[in-house]
Amino acid sequence: MQPREIARPATRPRCSRWEVGLALALVLLAACAPVPISPEAARRTAGSGRAPVSIEFYLVHEAPGENVVERRMERTGEIVFLGPSPDLTERDIAWVEMQSERISGRPSLLVHFTPVGADKFAVLTRQNVGRRLAIVVNGTIISTPLIRAEIRDGRATIQGFRSATEAQALAAALGRR
Length: 177
Description:
The protein is an alpha+beta fold. It has one domain (about 35-175): Gyrase A, domain 2 (2-Layer Sandwich), CATH 3.30.1360. About 20% of the residues lie in helices and about 25% in strands. The chain is built from 4 helices and 9 strands, in the order ααββββββαβββα. Strands 1, 2, 3, 4, 7 and 8 form a 6-stranded antiparallel beta sheet that branches. The relative contact order is 0.24.
């Protein structure tokens, strides 16, 4: 199985039509103005009965070694080796936007990093071209895209969601614009 590539969108997606589509049982999609939710506000919802969310980005190591943790990808069964701590977390994310992949129509998230997160992501991608980056959501590895080039614009697309509902829940918890 080929690793997925971290891709930058060619154009900025329209505003979040998925909100209206969900309300109308995905029968009718229409544009609407989403309500901004900051990541901090989303994390505060943990005490309100809503589940807290975590998203972490780890470099994938090619083989086991010292301070490397073996993990199994739930969806594919592939064994991957991750460092003991993430390279980026939800604290490095300013906001996210729902989008659909042009060809497949599958849901994805466009992540906008904070200025500090964008700098960390640029260094991470520049120094690790040709390696994979594991994206871990609530402890589950959802994707391990291949880093093809340095990404300096502070944005990344996350793919690998099972459904629009799964992507939507993560977008709502992390904050969207």
